[in-house]
Amino acid sequence: MFLFNSLNSFMNAHENNQYNPRLQSNAKDLRYRMTKAEACLWKYVLKGRVLKGYQFRRQRPIDQYIADFVCLPLKLIIEVDGITHTYGEVANNDEVRQAKLESLGFKVIRFEDDEVLTQINRVRESILGVIEEIEQDQLK
Q1: Residue 11 confidence (pLDDT) above 80
Q2: DSSP 52
Q3: ∠ CA(12), CA(42), CA(101), 5° rounding?
Q4: Taking the domains of the chain in order of start, what are their residue ranges?
């Protein structure tokens, strides 16, 4: 029975893009406490399927992490990093996190808070470029 339950949990996680329901309440809290940069990216770029019709989700639990934004059909994760992400242990944790998410088949792109707040059109164009790259790769 244990083996069946473990296999069933693995299959459900795999089919659901490694969704982790144990982090659901933390993710919900983070959605209500988005940083200014995250809120701007969501409101002006990602919300409402405005990027080629793709749906993005905010604060999505994936494996043992919560991704800032994810588009599941593209397996694209967008992270918005504050100044603390450039230092020591936080930067190291980000590298480990990104490697794990990429090992699960996701593409991870990062923007700094300042980029989002001062160059949102460039950030939007950058995301569109990545979407087009992924679309081309999917055609192969």
Answers
A1: no
A2: T
A3: 40
A4: 2-139
